[in-house]
Amino acid sequence: MNRLSYAIAITAIGLFALTGCNGTTQPTTQTSPTVTAVSGSSNTTQDGFNALVGVVSNTKTAVDAGKFDQAQQEFDKFEDSWAKVEDGVKAKYPNNYAAIEDTTTQVKSAIKAKDKTKALEALQTLDKNIATVSKS
User: Fold this and answer.
1) pLDDT tens-digit profile of 56-69?
2) pLDDT tens column, 82-113
3) Which of 18, 53, 74, 109 shows the smallest number of beta carbons within 10 Å?
4) Secondary structure (H, E, C), the chain
5) 55-81 burial by CB neighbour count: b if 16+ within 10 A, else e?
6) Is pTM beyond 0.85 here?
7) CA nearest to 120, candidates 132, 129, 111
């Protein structure tokens, strides 16, 4: 009977030891990908801002030439690039976020109406707002 109690106690201690080790290993494994993701997001953010600047520049060129269909095609790319940085801008710079959202609507309306002056003014404002948050 003594040997049976001893065997059960040893088995229980072994299981507790394995369970305890298993629990401390998992958080370490989970932490590493998080660090990688954070460092990668900075590149994604900068790529998003660079893409936005490119879209605005290409749209300005098309509007300036009076090519509103081309301007519309260029500006349609804005949302994809904006999606990469939008949440960060909204969290850190809510006023700039609102200004960018409003100005985006103005650009779309001006391009649709083929209003060169309003489109160029809105694109210039959009460019300034993007530059402000991308450098911060």
Assistant:
1) 999 999 999 999 99
2) 998 999 999 999 999 999 999 999 999 999 99
3) 18
4) CHHHHHHHHHHHHHHHHHHHHHHHHHHHHHHHHHHHHHHHHHHHHHHHHHHHHHHHHHHHHHHHCCCHHHHHHHHCCHHHHHHHHHHHHHHHCHHHHHHHHHHHHHHHHHHHCCCHHHHHHHHHHHHHHHHHHHCC
5) bbebbbebbeeeebebbbebbeebeeb
6) no
7) 111
- Closest by CA to 82, choosing from 70, 69, 96, is 96
| Closest to 88 measured CA to CA, from 34, 31, 136, 37 | 136
Residues 46 and 49: their CA atoms lie apart, in Å, by 5
Residue 43 reports pLDDT greater than 70: no
